[in-house]
Amino acid sequence: MTSNIGYTPAEKGILIVLSGPSGVGKGTVCKALRSKAPELVYSVSATTRPPREGEVDGVNYFFKSREQFLQLVDQDQMLEWAEYVGNFYGTPRKFVEETLQSGKDIILEIEVQGALKVKQKFPEGVFIFLLPPSLPELESRIVGRGTESEESIRNRMSVALEEIRLMEHYDYAIVNDQVDLACERILGILTAEHCRKDRMVSKIKHWMAEVNH
Amino acid sequence: MTSNIGYTPAEKGILIVLSGPSGVGKGTVCKALRSKAPELVYSVSATTRPPREGEVDGVNYFFKSREQFLQLVDQDQMLEWAEYVGNFYGTPRKFVEETLQSGKDIILEIEVQGALKVKQKFPEGVFIFLLPPSLPELESRIVGRGTESEESIRNRMSVALEEIRLMEHYDYAIVNDQVDLACERILGILTAEHCRKDRMVSKIKHWMAEVNH
């Protein structure tokens, strides 16, 4: 009768997938989370693009040859992958699963289509959709980058609208009105997911069994 | 295209039901929550017991005659009720519903059987079960009151075990290892519930409709 039902090392971690339309600020929120929640692990992508100066294998990316990358795909070792400007990018399953097994939570920041692919392979993940405070605000964030033509902005807005319709497939949606608030909401969701009854019941079964013998 | 999808006054509040075995510290946690989260409304019970000195109708309790109380029961205006030492105690539906309609969250602290009755009438509530850090710890909290015989303690522990089995019917379970942590978990759950996709979709429908016309 001495066991404790706080968080135990035996508990598996939670995969949080943070997604949302381009321009919504996924990267900024994730960066802020890194300093607010250093105990969270951040998923490392694999890529076939050559390392840039200062990039470290296993930290910034897992650097792979095309052959290695495609072999991992064949072995169902990529939770999702895509080709972008001639290079492959993907999310290695092994790093995610090993982190979860070690009892740590891991966060994966990814665009909307990629997130839905991850959901097919990893439905037990917690899928969070990041929303802009309003559509005009999203537009001004895209315009604010100053790098795009009017047509390109219109095009990106229409893609963003299509993507927002896909939030239906997510568990949660949070508004990125202030980065700090968005982080708090993500950490609140993480806390809540750890407290879900089913998670706790599986702990208490062990605890009750000890008590009943 | 000017609407905002942060929390709006149009959004209904959430009913949080906090329950758990006697001795687990529900009252202490609720008291701490009151100072940490003054924006939360606390459910006010109805009772037929006469007001004590300083107690204010509508603040400490809604004071009712037996006739008034039973009439409310007949009109299905009590989410749950029970008789205790010759007096009736219950949770008036009207106060809860009016608070939720005003967009505020309301918390109801209640014993396990009462919570399950509330769930029958109010399944959209969020039901949180408070657990002791361990059974020996619960026992020492009951013993610590110093007012009970050994038989009474054994009896209360066996009731507590029965009640812990009922956590199956709850949405979340949290451990009351430290009052501050328990409060944080409750507030995390509340944040998460506000960010549930279905809640947000119903907001964004309005938002998307504005965009599409």
UniProtKB/TrEMBL annotation, chains A, B:
InterPro entries: GK/Ca_channel_bsu, Guanylate_kin-like_dom, Guanylate_kinase, Guanylate_kinase_CS, P-loop_NTPase
Name of one Pfam family that matches: Guanylate_kin
Job description of the protein: Essential for recycling GMP and indirectly, cGMP.
Protein name, per record: Guanylate kinase
Occurrences of domain Guanylate kinase-like (ranges): 13-191
Keyword tags: ATP-binding, Cytoplasm, Kinase, Nucleotide-binding, Transferase
Catalysed reactions, semicolon-separated: GMP + ATP = GDP + ADP
Main location: cytoplasm
Residues the entry annotates as binding ATP: G20, P21, S22, G23, V24, G25, K26, G27
GO molecular function (one): GMP kinase activity
EC code: 2.7.4.8
Highest taxon of the lineage: Bacteria
Gene: gmk
Family designation: Belongs to the guanylate kinase family.
Compartments in which it is found: Cytoplasm
Enzyme class: transferase
